[in-house]
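[agent] plan:
  1. take the single chain provided in the ticket
  2. run structure prediction with default settings
  3. attach structure tokens to the ticket
  4. add a short note for the reviewer (M.T.)
[agent] executing step 1
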Amino acid sequence: MSGLLYSTAQLGTVTQIAFVVEDLEASVAEYSDRLGVGPWTAWELGPDVLSTMTYGGEPVEFSFRHALAWSGETQLELVQPLNGPSIFADHLSSHGPGLHHIGIIVDDHTRIVSEFEESGYRVLQSGAGFGAEGDGAFCYFDVGHSIAGVVELISPPRTRRVPLFQYPEVDRTESL
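[agent] step 2 finished; step 3 output follows
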């Protein structure tokens, strides 16, 4: 594969930088307490939430927990693999914790994913249905480049599900 598949004007800007971690709670606390990044909101995704899941081009079941926070204009994501085959578990076993992928929010997820596939980029993992209304999709591609080996195309849900946790924890008694 050579050349630029999309310009940032066509595709959008890199919105997210993601790291694979071994312990989500400890990592969220460290990013928050040591680096001042947060607040964090975490969810668990797996077969009970995702309507479709693939890994290596095949339907599979996997689960992971992830937390999101903003640092300026950039969303940081921390991902902890739990069960089943996943690119996150692969990363931990091959490289240990660390930088994993960049994410780009796209307007027409189905079309852009198809165009990436038609251009020869390999789907590593995908999933859909993580929103409260059953919407939301993600697809990870091996783009074969040392600058960003893995790119995630993201279609955020209209509404998020109830989070697994928030850090720092939101004190709901203050508003009473």
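[agent] step 4 note for reviewer: The longest strand covers residues 74-83.
[agent] ticket updated
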